[in-house]
Amino acid sequence: MSSLITILREVRDPRDPNARHDLAELLFVALAATLCGAKSCVEIAEFGEGREEE
After folding, report:
1. pLDDT in tens, 18-29
2. pLDDT at position 51 over 90
3. How far apart are CA 54 and CA 40, in angstroms?
């Protein structure tokens, strides 16, 4: 998993420099949620919220 995060950290972040969340972590959560069946941004957000402590 750490190597995947390392790869995702290489993606250029087009957002404002004061973004609240790390882009690599957002991409990882989106990938994990999609693999678990999430089909929309709302489902991805719910997936992430449900696993915040992990």
Report:
1. 888 888 889 999
2. no
3. 21
pLDDT at 46 over 70: yes
Q: What does the pLDDT average to over 23-45?
A: 94
- Are 33 and 47 in contact by the 8 Å Cβ rule? The answer is yes
**CB atoms < 10 A from the CB of 44, how many?**
19
Q: What ranges do the domains of the chain cover?
A: 2-14+21-50
Which among 52, 25, 48 has a CA at the least distance from the CA of 38? 48
Element (H, E) at 12: none
Please say whether the beta carbons of 37 and 27 come within 8 A: no
